[in-house]
Amino acid sequence: MTEFDGPDLPVVWQRITRSSGRSAILTASSAYPWEICVRVRPRSVLIVAVATALAAPIGIAAAAEPPTPAPPTATAADPSAPVPPIPQGWPAVSSASATKPVEITPGVTEYSETYITADGPEHTQVLQVDLSRGKVRVDTVESHDHVIDPPNELTTSMGNRTGAVAGINGDFFAIHASGAPLGGVVRDGVLLKTPRPHFAGQVAIANRRASVGEVDFTGKLTIGKESATLESVNTVEDAAPDGLAITSDLLKKSKPPAAINGITEITPDLGAVAAIPAGTLVIAHRNGASPAVIDQVIPDATSVPALGPDQVGLLGGGAGAGWLTEHATPGARVSISADLSSKGIDTLIGGATVLVQNGAVFNDPTGAPPSGRNPETMVGVSKDGRQLTMVVIDGRQTTSIGVTPQEASEYLVAHGMDAGVLLDGGGSSTLAAQLPGTTGLTILNHPSDAAGERPVANGLFVYDH
Q1: Please, are residues 422 and 374 in contact by the beta-carbon 8 Å criterion?
Q2: How far apart are CA 188 and CA 464, in angstroms?
Q3: Do residues 250 and 332 share a domain?
Q4: Which of 340, 366, 381 is the last residue of a domain?
Q5: In the chain, how many H helices and how many E strands?
Q6: Which secondary structure element, helix H or strand E, spans residue 74, and what is its range?
Q7: What is the pLDDT of residues 330-387, one digit of tens each?
């Protein structure tokens, strides 16, 4: 009788029979006719191996005294490779293997895993990032450096043009429409787009520590003696909720956005917006940190031009449009404040839902995960926030069937993550790195779209400078 801690259970050939009791049956390789009874206890798994007469039914002569085999274990493709932990709740796993970790740069390694389950194979690509290493940093990149970008951009293109050594695709986005990410974006400490209100499914990095959870926004604008609430930054739907066609699968599970009829700040990071419902657009210029000076007030604006580096805009819809029309005049000064509830955020990217909280599978009441099995991209965070793990699990292929959000959660928990977020998946799922001896990023997973790598709204990238 041998007792093992649950995560270290050295069993790969598993056929788990769930019942109302606290036991399960696991059957080892057909080469060894053993029945392994597993009794689950709060902090361990008790394994009792009992010889059974399984040989006859499968046509193998039973020996009087069969040899005692070593306990079946997860195998590694390389002796120095990590032994893949088997996620609890996955379909029965018959084998699991991993490749030897490859150092991309000091503090950053990548490896892959292959699981053979009762439902089909699963192939993972893993990138481990030590945020405590001096030169290592992680940041977001927007497609063509704009929030609104209908063509979007390949993950590898975003990484290559910014000098990244590795990266993954990012947030869900308005595909075949505005191209805008659905959630918030912070790059190099600059707020490019406001986080979704009362939404936890996002990853933030501040002072080299990553975290998962809600980040609130507060904003205010003042013209003369009059002030109004600033709803957001570069979130056009806050002023014109019907102005951007959203076709993301994520929002099919969500209610349409309510008409806020507020005011959003427009910065040069937004890019041009070709068509919006009529609203009031204010364009101003600023010199340094001083209040901006209004240059134009455009009532019934139906588009937003790309702004220059010293320009700022305000877009209002409904009541917000009325307030701007009443108080904004050319030559007037406007003061704008925009703050996040968590201070010092260097990087922020949104996703679909929180997968893991406090080291356990979490059902995020603020999230909207996709349904069914899909290729998935996810980010896991260690308890101290210093270790960031980026994962892509391939899907929709004979070599990898993909995972449900529940299975994605179970994967991160098995790999020791304290928190985790599901990013955009499906054909968007891409993980790339600059392998030793090469220049530029190489895609390490197998994107599921027939055309190959899909253009996306943004990504999360690793740099060594």
Answers
A1: no
A2: 14
A3: yes
A4: 340
A5: 3, 33
A6: none
A7: 999 999 999 999 999 999 999 999 999 999 999 999 999 999 999 999 999 999 999 9
